[in-house]
Each structure stands twice: as C-alpha cells, then as structure tokens.
Amino acid sequence: MSDGHGSTPDTPPGWASNQPPPYGDAPGSPWTAPGSGPGAPPPQPPPQQPHGGQAPPYGQPPPHRPGPYGPPPHGFPPPPAMRPGIIPLRPLGIGDILDGAIKLIRSNPKTILGLSAIVAALGAIPVAIGQAVMIGDLGAGLDDPSVLEDPQDIGFLAQYGGTLISYAVQFVAVTLLTGVLTRILGRAVFGGKMSVGEAWQLTRNRVPTLFGLVAIGMLVMLIPMVVVIAVIAGLGAAGADFGALFLVGALAILGFVAYALFITTRLALAASVAVLERRGVIDSLRRSWNLVGGGFWRTLGILLLTQLITALVALVLSFPFTIMAFVVGMIGKGSTGSQIGTAILIAVGGTVSAMITYPFQAGVNGLLYADRRMRAEAFDLVLQTAAIEQQRQGWVHASADDLWDPSITPSGPGRYDQTGQGAPWRDS
C-alpha cells in the first residue's frame, strides 16, 4: 500500500517507485544486497590469478589486460578515426601519408594528372631534344669516328642547353603546380573535389609568394656552395698538396650535405603554409621552421623515403622509353628522322614519370604539413568538427578552405600560438 508520498513498502521513503532500491550494508538497514544480511555466508576472497600472479585486494576491480589496442578504459578498442577524404582525421603515420598522396591522385585524376602532364612535358621536351642530338651523334660516330673527336660537333647547347632550359621551365611550372595541388589537397582531406579553374582562382594570388619561397631557398643553398668552392680554389691557388685539398673538400662536401638536409627539411612546409594559410614569404618560412622543429627527424626520414620512392618510380616508368630511344638513335645514326623519334620517346618517358612523381611529392609535403599541425596544435579536432558538420549537410562547402587559416579558425581550444608549439603533449 502507498503512504501517500509515492513510496511503497518495497522502497525506502524519498526513493522513486520506478527506480531500484539502493543496497547498503549499514547496520540495521532493511535494504541489503541479495545474498547479504543476517545469516548470509561471509564473503569469499576472489580466486587467485593464473600464472602465479597476485590477486588484487578484495573490493578493488581487477586490472585490465592489455589487448591489441593497448589497455582500453572500458574493455573496448578505440573507435576508428573519421575518414571523410584521403586521410584519417588524426595524427598520421608514414603509411597514412604515402597512402594519402596516392589517394590524392586517384580522387581527382583528370585535374591532377592533366596539370602534372602539362608541367612534366614542358620540363621534359628541352632535355629530350638535347639528349636526342647526343645519341644521334653517337650513332653517327659508328661510321665516322671523327664526329666524336671534335666536341664542337656536339656543341655546348646540345649537351647542357636542354638541361638549363628544363630547369628554368621547372622553376616556373613546378612552383605553380605545387601551389595548385596543395589547394586541391586542402579540399580532398574532407572528400571534396576541385576543378582546375577553381584551383587556379584560389591559388593565383599566392604565386608571387611561391616564387619568393623558391628564390630564397635557392639563395640559401647557393651561398654556402659558393663559399665551399671559393675555399677549395683558394687552397689550390696557395699551393696546398693534394691530400690537404682532398681532406678539406671531403669535409666541406659532407658539411654542405648536412646543411642542405637540415635547411630543406625545416623549410619543407613553407609552400603549404603560403597556400593554405595565406601567409607572406618570411612568415611562411618562419611558420614551417617552427612546425618542423618538434619532429625534425621524422620529417627528414619521410622526405628521404619519398625521394627514394619517386626516383625508383621514375626510373621504372622512363626506362623502357629510354632504351627504345637509344636503339632508334643508334640505328638512325644521326638522321633527322631518328633524332625526332628519339626526342619523342625520351620526352614521353620523362612526361609519364614526372606526371606521377610531381603530384605524389606535392601530396606528401601537404600531408606532412597537416600531420605536423595535428601533432603540434590538435588541428585534428578542428578537422573532425568540420567533417561532422559537412556530413550533416551532405556536402563539402568551399568555406572548408578557411579552416586551414589559423587567423580564422584556431587549432583547438587554447592550443594555438604563433610558434606552432601550442600542444607539445601531442607531439609524438
């Protein structure tokens, strides 16, 4: 029967009738747990753990056994990270970065491979012409060895002109391609696509900054190289013996290689910063320097691995065309038709290899930038929040590009500062 206050004889006063009664062991309390109370057997200690382990003290929960995901707090593996686009929205591993660079190409192949093919052809054609002339002269030298005795027949332009022109073209074209691909990558992280026109529209105002970054990078590399050459030349002019020149030269080369690796690694993210965060030249360099600072060796290792992969891929893709070009040039013995065929084959091989390696390298650099921000600034929280909203709306809005700009969207609550080291606890 009810006492008029919502309680019954089965529930204590003040306790709702639709809730289970609280169990207690207080002396004299009528509300005791099942199997307890007067006349109940005393509690038994828990069984001993196997393998000779000690059981935890009575009344404490047993420790969690480590599983394949580590010791989960509730006995369940952690949920997988969100992956609306080419990468999971969490700090990235090496496999995530390489896989994401490949998925970048596959996510928008017409735009990415089309742009890369144009840039690769512009850089490969001058080199192909010079190499075709040299191979043709080698073929002609089989019948007339005097062709090879006079270096003027080959000429400086045929030997080095194509390479110099190719470097000049790549300086312009590859810089523009890197900026456009970085902008496409910023959208592809959320699963969105971007046309060539839209990517160029968003990137063209960053072109002066990109050229400034490349120019400063070349200057930073050339100055120590000139110093090394000047020191060696000065020692030679002073009459130093060969052993001293060799020792100084070897040490200088090793020092320059270490310097080049250090500088290029610390500044590797500057292009991504300039495009996605819309910063100036000096600010982009400073930002890249600070972001890489917490993970220098990891960044260096990934960049070296990427260079090795791209070199092997380029060799495999261009090797058949190079062999066919050499055979055509040697059989044609310098004829106009054979030189044209040789140049075409070499250009095709260089274009095919570069149209794959260029976007792959750009993708790795862009994803390294995203990874460094996730680790240093908890930027993955910003990306996850935006991805949830985009999934709710059912599409990727162009405003997602603004998420990369810290002046518009801070990287996590209270975790961003101008040094890029706002959350060192995530930097692992």
UniProtKB/TrEMBL annotation:
Listed Pro residues bias regions: 39-49, 58-82
Chain intervals with Low complexity compositional bias: 26-35
Domain called DUF7847: residue spans: 94-354
Bilayer-spanning residue ranges: 112-135, 164-186, 207-238, 244-276, 311-331, 343-360
Keyword Membrane attributed: yes
Keyword field: Membrane, Transmembrane, Transmembrane helix
Superkingdom field: Bacteria
Disordered: annotated segments: 1-84, 404-428
Record's protein name: DUF7847 domain-containing protein
Organism: Streptosporangium roseum (strain ATCC 12428 / DSM 43021 / JCM 3005 / KCTC 9067 / NCIMB 10171 / NRRL 2505 / NI 9100)
